[in-house]
Amino acid sequence: MARNRTRVAASSGGTPLAGRVDRGGPRCARGRSRGPFASGRNPRPSAGRLAGGGMSRIVVVSNRVPVPSGNAGHAGGLAVALLGLMQQRGGLWFGWSGAVTEGVGPPAFSQRGAVGYATLDLTEAEHRGYYTGYSNGVLWPMLHSLPHLMAFRRQDLDTYRRVNRRFADNLAPLLHQDDRIWVHDYHLMSLPGALRGQGVRNPTGFFLHVPFPAPDAAAVAPGIRGLVQDVLAADLIGFQTASDRDNFASTASEFAGAVRTGDQQMEIGGREVRLGVFPAEIAAREFAATAASQAALEPARLLSRSLQGQHLVLGVDRLDPTKGLPERLEAFRRVIARRPARSATMLQIAAPSREDVLAYRRLRQEVDSAAGSINSEFGEPDWLPLRLLARPQTRDTVAGFMRLARVCLVTPIRDGMNLVAKEFIAAQDPNDPGVLVLSRFAGAAAQLSSALLVNPHDAEGMAEALSCALDMPRAERQERWQAAWESIAGASPEGWGEDFLRALAPGDLAALPTAGSA
Question: Running DSSP on this structure, what letter comes out for residue 442?
Fold first, then answer.
């Protein structure tokens, strides 16, 4: 009997002039056949190779599997970062289909060029407990240091572990002898341990795309001790920043008895676990070309015409408590109150996400109210200072908007990396670039230190930085932009992935990037 399937929407998915840049300080006056995927599994794989004929197959495991479709323009950060690498190298991508069904079934398989896809559906109970309940209701707020948003139920933790085991049970028979397994993000923290429980001995890496807090903050999440132990079953654990790596190492020492034997390794149970810092990257030159071409197309032209000479302040976010939107809007309100009318206007794209979570619904009401208050206080019959779009835009369209913007506000309360900050830098016209105002608590701040770095909890400080950015002379804007561009221009998502896989080579500690090189 055919099962009823419901597709679940994805929730996606960072100076003095005088010849130098002061890093961070503003300079202002103040089909379901197993097919080719099935194989026998040998628990003692060969090392394989990273390049050339006979290289090891890559097996990527993530919560959602982005099987290519006509909606690629809305792909999230994980998909954008990995699809190019997978298409170049081939392999298997395994994870949730995005569908919720009445019963449990076997994986579905498909092939797109060199990439195979194996997906599992979730039942309603699994989706509610594993995804909504524990992943997004407990781990997401804990990892972003927002424990007041946690909503814990014991059955959700049990379901989270059970779904991770089901992933392991279905993935293990598909593995080749010399596959390298790359597990992604907080939804699957139990998976490395579950795979080892299945007898899988393939080189296994785990990468955390979001921040990892200090041990005291991590301790608030029920079940975190077991999850840390499961992550330690991986051979290589990757993070966006050195701070995240060090926080995890401290937590692993305190909760799991692991011993840190160096910046890049720990020991537990007689085996070595390697730690690495791998900042996620964008294809900067490709995005720059896209922005330049999109600026001439209708969406950007219409926006440009509507500005009538005003400076554009841009924000591009999911509607999420971690993004600091209420504080950002308050900073903009203070700036508009002090400046001449019609000198600047703000476009805030805030696509709703996780609307089944009460905290997200309340945030949308708060943002809508703040936006309405700004427009009612400062708007005129033919002009509004703030435009709020509560729906997603394609990456290409956003690239064109970024090209037009004088300022981009990327001010999360906490963020693992934030690729929007890097995309804004890539989108700029080198002759007349805009200014990035960036939270110092975004992972991107470690690389983009020539941005105006701000504390997202300090609305007045953000208002001062925004005013500074709007008034900044072109020479200083160019200097800051050039420093930021040089930090991202040579990188790529494929290079990021290759760096991780090279470090996953058994015993290849020299391949781990140091914190300084990251």
Answer: B
- Of 486, 426, 475, 483, nearest to 451 by C-alpha is 483
Angle in degrees, CA 145, 151, 156, rounded to 5: 115
**What's the chain's length in residues?**
518
DSSP track, 114-133: TEEEEEEEEEHHHIIIIIII
The residue type found at 416 is G
Whether 415 is catalytic: yes
**Which of 367, 408, 389 is CA-nearest to residue 299?**
389
Cβ density class 169-195: b for 16+ within 10 Å, e for less:
ebbbebbbbbbbbbbbbbbbbbbbbbb
Type of residue found at 308: Q
Q: Return the residue matching tokens 């908007």.
A: 401
Report the pLDDT value the prediction gives residue 357, as an integer from 0 to 100. 81
Residue 296: Cβ-neighbour burial (10 angstroms; 0-12, 13-18, 19+): exposed
- Catalytic site includes residue 148: no
pLDDT attached to residue 21:
39
Determine the pLDDT at residue 32.
37
3-state helix, strand and coil shares in percent for the chain, rounded to the nearest 5 = 45, 20, 35
d(CA 206, CA 239): 9
Low-confidence ranges of the chain (pLDDT < 50): 1-2, 11-24, 26, 29-54, 72, 515-518
pLDDT score for 42 = 39
Mean pLDDT across the chain: 88
Best CA proximity match to 408, nearest among 475, 269, 326, 313:
313
pLDDT at 184: 97
DSSP string spanning 81-118? HHHHHHHHH-EEEEEEEEEEESS--PPEEEEETTEEEE
Rounded CA gap, 82 and 80, in Å? 6
What's the pLDDT score for residue 512? 56
Domains in the chain, CATH or no CATH each? 31-281+493-510 (3.40.50.2000), 284-488 (3.40.50.2000)
What kind and span of H or E run contains 238? strand 236-239
| DSSP for residue 364 | H
- Catalytic residue among 184, 209, 244, 311, which? 209
Question: Which position among 185, 230, 415, 499 bears the catalytic label?
Answer: 415
Element containing residue 312 per DSSP (H, E): strand 311-319
Please state the three-class secondary structure of 270-311 as a single string: CEEEEEEECCCCCCHHHHHHHHHHHCCCHHHHHHHHHHCCCE
Q: Which amino acid makes up residue 314?
A: L
Token digits of residue 318: 């999911």
